């Protein structure tokens, strides 16, 4: 009889646990990629097979800006657009992207643009993807897959009825060198492609920061785009928009946003260990990711192409929920958060008559932040230990191949931390009071986020509102001894599982192991709402044994993973080694971002890292492991047609710099120790003066992507005494022949660009 009574008391807990499992499955299902459609799919559908079939022409080899391989891609794009009945144009222009605290980015870029006219256009939908790759990789995912996806989208649109609005296709150049192609496009005159006012243009930008994973709509620029987001069906959250705005990252959409165009940013982000490396190739690209991206963008385009683009709605909070997109106006964010906070206060006041102990809830609430701090400390500590054990993880910046095993280990340790807090809180609080304590923190964070990060507030607002309502119902309709009271938090946790779990899983590969503390803190919030599932508690000894087992399992998982985590041709190790020739002194050096203990590159490096702030300005800012290298016979940059004039104390230096074939970028710096740079120009494009490089004496500079073969015209105006020193640094992919340079093994790849890995730098100084 006692066993039957115990079973009956546990049935509510088992039912709640099943509910939470089903909720978790339904919430994370949208993070799975769909099966790719074959080439035989319907003409109006997007087919990943048809898109990937184009990649041999787009991303077979590295094709950085200005390279012959990129010219081949450009010609292919023009041919394919013409085959679709469009009239493409190539827009070539010198673009300048100045920065306040970095050398300006400059380059001659060639964008490809075409228009599909609408029937009664109210504006235009502009699809954008950059078609250049990094110099050290073929860029199958970043961004060849998205270039191919736009061609397939254009084909699918042509197969259907004519759309209301113009749909334009823009393949930008020079994105990897600082968004130069997008800048060139917005700088161009209306006759060169800007056919609609910025406020009536909606940009859809396609990007990738990995080789797999679902399509994510991670940024909105402007307002009134929620219907298109909903029609896209991609996983989305306005939290991503808030986080992205805090990070020092940009895409082409940044440039369009600056001139008042609205837009959406799509990307897939898993498999980031291959990002910007030679292994971002067709074989490693996930066809399911291409299908998800194509379906999502095609859905958004069709929605926008039928809208009145002269109208725009209000700002909105939006998030994916069970495969659909929920949204509401931004003006509701703060009132809803305030309602959650008010509900928490009212529940604490009114719940006393139903047996809710405010003292126990307050004690639990006062100590719950310790679990959040513990989660953050756990993430930081584990990364510190792993970075010490595995310096190769640091070189990859936490973007490792087997992230899941470390996430499992840390999740086990987090569960032990939460269980320890829960057992302590249960000494003076009932399960229901512990649940209320956690929900009060959700309500408080809802208000804080509503003020500081409005797009993130929903993560806390809705779990607080629904959870507090569930607790109120439990208090109102059950007796004090009811077993349902012990699982009230579990029932109330369903909204937290639905909203927080997929975001935490998405942040994990996006941020990598080095920033795992962020999803762990979200995991602590989520775990706090689930703790009552363990009720009724087992005996103390059993609970302790379970916790010890979980802790040991977590540590073993992390330790064994770190010791045995190896590499293969499919999952290569990132290595770093560059070559620097300082032609002024004849000194040649090996430099690295890695560790001298690495068996491949360590034999080239000495013991003491060196800062190159004054010697090689592009490498400034960090002490680099280095070693003496054999001098290579390399062609040097040279100055021609030099002229110097002075007028009213201003020295104007004009010269034409020629660089060897194969150089992908040229950096020019002026010595500001004895001169103030007033300004200058490159290929006729004006450059602002002032100090824009804070490391060393070379305080002003710019970087030119793909310098012309016949030379780069440079003008620098400065005020000061004596000749003006100019330091020129060329960058070329690959290491020189004849100096004993290593070749990465089959299970290795040069670390992601931009870095010193697999690159040659030649330095030369001119004084005029």
Automatic annotation (TrEMBL):
SUPFAM superfamilies: Zn-dependent exopeptidases (SSF53187). Keywords: Membrane, Transmembrane, Transmembrane helix. InterPro entries: M28_fam (IPR045175), Peptidase_M28 (IPR007484). It comes from the Bacteria. The keyword Ribosomal protein does not apply. The chain crosses the membrane at residues 328-349, 361-386, 406-422, 434-453, 459-475, 487-507, 513-533, 545-564. Residues 112-299 form the Peptidase M28 domain. PANTHER family: METALLOPEPTIDASE M28 FAMILY MEMBER, PEPTIDASE M28 DOMAIN-CONTAINING PROTEIN. This is M20/M25/M40 family metallo-hydrolase.
């Amino acid at each position: 009889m006692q066993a039957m009574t115990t079973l009956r008391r546990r049935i509510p807990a088992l039912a709640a646990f099943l509910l939470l499992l089903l909720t978790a499955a339904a919430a994370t299902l949208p993070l799975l990629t769909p099966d790719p459609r074959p080439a035989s799919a319907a003409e109006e559908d997007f087919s990943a097979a048809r898109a990937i079939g184009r990649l041999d022409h787009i991303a077979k080899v590295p094709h950085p800006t200005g390279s012959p391989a990129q010219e081949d891609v450009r010609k292919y794009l023009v041919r394919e657009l013409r085959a679709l009945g469009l009239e493409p144009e190539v827009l070539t222009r010198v673009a300048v992207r100045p920065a306040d605290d970095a050398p300006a980015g400059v380059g001659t870029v060639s964008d490809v643009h075409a228009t599909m006219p609408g029937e009664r256009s109210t504006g235009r939908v502009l699809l954008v993807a950059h078609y250049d790759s990094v110099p050290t990789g073929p860029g199958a995912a970043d961004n060849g897959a998205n270039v191919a996806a736009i061609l397939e989208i254009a084909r699918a649109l042509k197969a259907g009825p004519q759309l209301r609005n113009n749909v334009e296709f823009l393949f930008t150049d020079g994105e990897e060198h600082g968004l130069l192609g997008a800048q060139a496009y917005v700088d161009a005159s209306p006759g060169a492609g800007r056919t609609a006012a910025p406020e009536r243009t909606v940009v859809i930008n396609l990007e990738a920061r990995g080789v797999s994973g679902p399509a994510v709509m991670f940024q909105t620029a402007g307002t009134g785009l929620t219907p298109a987001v909903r029609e896209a069906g991609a996983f989305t959250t306005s939290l991503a928009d808030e986080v992205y705005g805090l990070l020092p990252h940009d895409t082409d959409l940044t440039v369009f946003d600056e001139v008042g165009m609205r837009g959406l940013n799509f990307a897939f982000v898993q498999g980031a260990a291959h990002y910007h490396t030679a292994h971002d190739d067709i074989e490693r690209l996930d066809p399911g990711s291409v299908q998800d991206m194509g379906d999502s963008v095609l859905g958004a385009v069709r929605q926008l192409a039928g809208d009145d683009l002269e109208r725009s709605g209000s700002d909105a909070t939006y998030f994916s929920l069970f495969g659909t997109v929920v949204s509401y106006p931004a003006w509701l964010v703060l009132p809803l958060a305030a309602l959650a906070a008010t509900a928490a206060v009212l529940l604490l006041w009114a719940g006393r008559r139903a047996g809710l102990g405010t003292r126990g809830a307050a004690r639990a609430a006062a100590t719950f932040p310790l679990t959040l701090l513990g989660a953050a400390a756990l993430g930081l500590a584990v990364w510190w230990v792993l970075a010490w054990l595995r310096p190769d993880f640091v070189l990859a910046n936490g973007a490792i191949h087997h992230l899941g095993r470390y996430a499992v280990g840390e999740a086990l340790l987090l569960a032990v931390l939460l269980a320890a807090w829960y057992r302590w809180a249960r000494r003076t609080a009932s399960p229901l009071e512990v649940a209320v304590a956690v929900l009060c923190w959700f309500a408080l964070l809802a208000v804080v986020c509503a003020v500081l990060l409005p797009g993130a507030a929903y993560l806390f607002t809705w779990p607080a509102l629904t959870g507090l309502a569930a607790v109120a119902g439990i208090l109102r309709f059950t007796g004090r001894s009811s077993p349902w009271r012990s699982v009230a938090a579990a029932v109330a946790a369903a909204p937290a599982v639905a909203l927080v779990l997929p975001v935490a899983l998405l942040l994990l590969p996006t941020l990598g192991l080095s920033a795992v503390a962020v999803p762990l803190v979200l995991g602590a919030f989520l775990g706090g709402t689930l703790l009552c599932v363990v009720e009724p508690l087992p005996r103390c000894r059993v609970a302790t044994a379970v916790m010890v087992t979980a802790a040991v399992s977590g540590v073993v998982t992390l330790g064994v993973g770190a010791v045995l985590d190896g590499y293969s041709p499919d999952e290569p190790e990132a290595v770093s080694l560059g070559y620097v020739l300082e032609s002024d002194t004849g000194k040649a050096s090996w430099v690295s971002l890695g560790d001298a203990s690495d068996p491949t590159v360590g034999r080239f490096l000495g013991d003491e890292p060196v800062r190159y702030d004054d010697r090689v300005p592009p490498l400034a800012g960090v002490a680099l492991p280095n070693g003496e290298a054999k001098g290579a016979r390399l062609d040097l940059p040279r100055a021609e047609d030099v002229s110097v004039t002075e007028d009213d104390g201003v020295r104007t230096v004009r010269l034409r710099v020629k660089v060897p074939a194969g150089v992908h970028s040229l950096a020019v710096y002026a010595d500001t120790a004895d001169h103030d740079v007033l300004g200058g120009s490159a290929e006729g494009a004006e450059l602002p003066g002032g100090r824009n490089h804070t490391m060393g004496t070379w305080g002003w500079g710019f970087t030119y992507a793909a310098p012309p073969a016949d030379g780069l015209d440079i003008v620098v105006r400065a005020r000061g005494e004596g000749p003006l020193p100019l330091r020129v640094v060329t960058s070329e992919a690959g290491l020189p022949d004849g100096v004993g340079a290593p070749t990465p093994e089959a299970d290795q790849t040069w670390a992601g660009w931009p870095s010193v890995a697999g690159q040659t730098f030649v330095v030369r100084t001119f004084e005029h």
